[in-house]
Structure formats: C-alpha cells, structure tokens
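Hi support team,

I submitted a single chain yesterday and got back a structure, but I'm not sure I'm reading the token output correctly. Could someone confirm the output below corresponds to the sequence I sent? I've pasted both exactly as they appear in my results page.

Thanks,
R.
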Amino acid sequence: MKKVMTVFGTRPEAVKMAPIIKKLNENPDIEHRSCVTAQHREMLDQVLNIFGIVPDYDLDIFTDGQTLSDITVKSLKGLEKVIVDFGPDLILVQGDTTTVFAGALAAFYNGVKIGHVEAGLRSGNLYSPYPEEANRKLTGIVTNYHFAPTETSKENLLREGYAEGDIYITGNTSIDALLDITSREYEFESELLNSLDYENRKVILMTSHRRENIGQPMEDIFSALRDVVEENPDVELVYPVHLNPKVKAIAEEKLGRHERIHLIEPLDYLPFANLQKKSYMIVTDSGGVQEEAPTLGKPILVIRKETERPEGIEAGTAKLIGVCREDVYREVSLLLNNSEEYQKMANAVNPYGDGKAAERIVEIIAEQLNTK
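Hi R., thanks for writing in. Yes, this is the structure output for that exact sequence:
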C-alpha cells in the first residue's frame, strides 16, 4: 500500500484539498494521512469542521504578526519530523501559499515525490500576487506531478520547460467542493444575511484583501463602490472585512456608516459559498472566487492589475477592471444597469471544471505510484 500525505495550512487550501482527501481515504490502495501547518488557524478550523476532516498531524504554527520567514521555517522544521514519522511516498500540496512552498521544499529535502494541485497558474509578475506568484514557481521546480486545472496552466508549464508527461489537466477541485456545499440545505446564522432581499435588490458581494492593493488602490476601490451604492437605491453591498487591521481601517473610513453597505466579520466557507449563490454579482481580488462564482452563474469583476487566472477573463465569466476609482465605478455601474452585459457574463461557461477534478487526481496518483 502506497503512502500519501496531504499538506495544507490555510482556508483556501483546505477547501480545495477536501475533495481530494475524501477520494484518497476511499482508495483501498492508498494509505493517506493529512498534515496541517495551521498557517491560518481559525479560518482553517472552520473548513475542517465543514468537511469533517480531522488532521493526523497539526503543526499549529500560527502566531499573531507572523512573517513569511516565520511560516516557512516553522513549517519546514515541523514537516521534517512528520515525514520521518509517516514515511510518505508522495506529498501533495495545493495552490500558492507559503505552506505550499514549505511543504514542497520539505518533501524535496527528504527525498519524497511531490504532487502540486492547481499547478501552472501564472500572472507574469513575480511580485503580484505576492508572495503567491513566487510560491507557485518555486514549488514547480521540485514537483514531480503537476496537476494543472486548465489547458492554459499546462501551456504555462510547458513554456517553462517542464516535461509534458509530468503534467495532467484535471480541472479545479474548488468546483468539486463548491458543488458539494451549495447542494446542501442552508440558512445563514447571521440575521443580517437572512434579512437581505436577494430577489428584489441587487446585492454586490465584495472581497478585498490583497497586500498589493492595501493603501491608495484599496481606498480608490472602496470609494468607487460607495459612489455606486449611493447612486443606485436598489443596491446593497456586503463586504466580509479581512482581519488585517490596515484593511479594516480603510473599510471603516471609506465604506462605514451607510445603511446599505454592510461591513461584516469574515465568513466561514459555508456561508460564503451560499452568499455567492444568492448575490447579484461579485467584486473581488481573490483568486479562488474567480473560479467558483461562474459555476453559480455570477459575474465577477476582478479588482487587480493582473490575474494568474486568465481563463475566466478569456471565457467571459470574469472581467479584469484594475484598481482605479473611475474604472471600478464604470464597470460596476455597467453590470448593474446593462442587462445584456450582465447576462453575457452570467451565462458564460466556467472554464475551471466539471466537479470531478479530485477523482481524476487520485486516479493518476494511484496509477503513477504503482508503476514507478
């Protein structure tokens, strides 16, 4: 029986690993164990509870004010002990966090094969998103099996010189997780979210937290959104505010004290997925949301200068609108007031998968580990 260990540390990783963990645990030819670094703690635990995941190893590295160096060093040292204890044949990491890079590096240092889920995404700017773009590229260097979600991701890897035989197009496991979650009966615990009139009002869901947007870009984005809400009496804005104190301060200054702008606490994955489903449109700088929302038929406006997920832009499910106040105001207003533009985006086909990515990945892992 081959041994596979999944390593993850943040909420987005946990969401996208959950369908894979389920399939690994169902496979009779694989002994699976999971290890969390807990790069995030509270938000990670929420997702573990939703999907019923009990980690076999928990490094519990999170501390207030942690730096990227702290995360890397603690993860490497902790993973070294776990690898010695379990002796995996393959370590599986997902995405672009510092945990991903540290997990891949720990596997490499200990002679363990590496599988990278969601491999090949590129923005073309090493410093945006930061440090995620670098984490993906650094992880790719030591990876044995590249699980690319799309043809574009595969082409990125081929251009960088990776062998075609080591690249597998699988779709994105975020779609697997989202279809699972949104198929369940659900009612918000929040009185506010339950009270919003999703049928007769246009509820804009916004997420904004990227490091490169903090400061003037974020001030301009928030100001533009406030202008839109003030000019459209049928619009409500819901913003789960990121825990970063700098983000919270800008949100309170630019978006606070308005009856139709709702600054709420960060949401667990389950309510957030269902809020996406109920919203009219989504304004975001998140990568994962760009993949998920098209499955639910929701147009996405991406408040970034570049994105490592160009497939959505090309397919028409998302539009890259930048961070300038005038651009954000114009593009949000267009979708609110032009039904033809709205329907064109809402009905575009999601390029990120069909909900069977995890099944494909585990089948490939089982085949490769039993033949090499």
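A quick pointer for reading it: The longest strand covers residues 2-8. Let us know if anything else looks off.

Best,
Support desk
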